[in-house]
Amino acid sequence: MSPVNLDMDVLRTLVALKQFGSFKRAADHIGRSQSAVSQQIRKLEQQVGEPLFRKQGRHMALTDAGEAALAFARRILDLNDEAVAAIRGRAVEGSVRFGLPADFAETWLPAALGRFKRTHPAARIEAVVDRNRKLLDMLDKDELDLVLAIGSGTRSDAKLLATLPVVWIGAASSQAIWKPGEPIPLVVYEPPCFFRQRALAALDTFGLPWRITFTSQSLQGLWAAVEAGLGITLRTAVGLPATLRALEGLPPVADGALPVCLHDCGRSLTPTSASLQSTIAEILGVAHLSANGV
Fold first, then answer.
1. Which residue, of 78, 100, 161, 229, has the greatest Cβ tally within 10 A?
2. Distance of alpha carbon 94 from its chain centroid, rounded?
3. Structural fold of domain 91-154+266-291
4. pTM of the prediction?
């Protein structure tokens, strides 16, 4: 039997269908008609010999074979895109100064920088991990070329990559650390901090007493204090340690989802900075979709 060569464009269509949730939205995204998208999926089903979608109410859902095909499609496309980027990127030299908050430093940064280094071996990266406000200040002073920041979507240079829900976080232990009627113990960053502001505003809105039991300048210090049972905190769940968990039953937070944006201060990017920007946008976008079950 001769080998079956899967069509790269068809694989991209399959990924787009899962990402956008419908044939129409996927067709609009990839610039094809809905009937053309249906034909592509039928072609792929013929190639693999299995149905990839099934009806689920008024929508279409992936079959087990479809889920397997999707996983392989993502791997094949990643390898294809990385190969093209590596060949093109070998000529990209120079350095880029990149800043990001600690939320992404341990879980997401190694994958992003590792991929960028493989595809751009002659490029150099100077990474700075700090609080959002400090990073954006460094960017404005031309001390950084690119900044990934949370909650900075109102800036004119913001390029939205994802939105992250804000959640109350406590120790993974089910034991309550305060009794009903007692002030809620809070672990927070030192001001200024928009997570701190949102936490206090949410509790005040519902008339719940609170007290600050621990302040920190670092995310690691914040996590350690919460794990030790000193209090709870308000944060996104990005990079949440296994010793902590999202809590229920606490007041909802106004503007309960925060934008994650890339910033360049409106400056013209060097080829190195532009390549890193593309890598960050792609990897963070995939991570965001994965975290939301896509």
1. 100
2. 27
3. D-Maltodextrin-Binding Protein; domain 2 (3.40.190)
4. 0.63
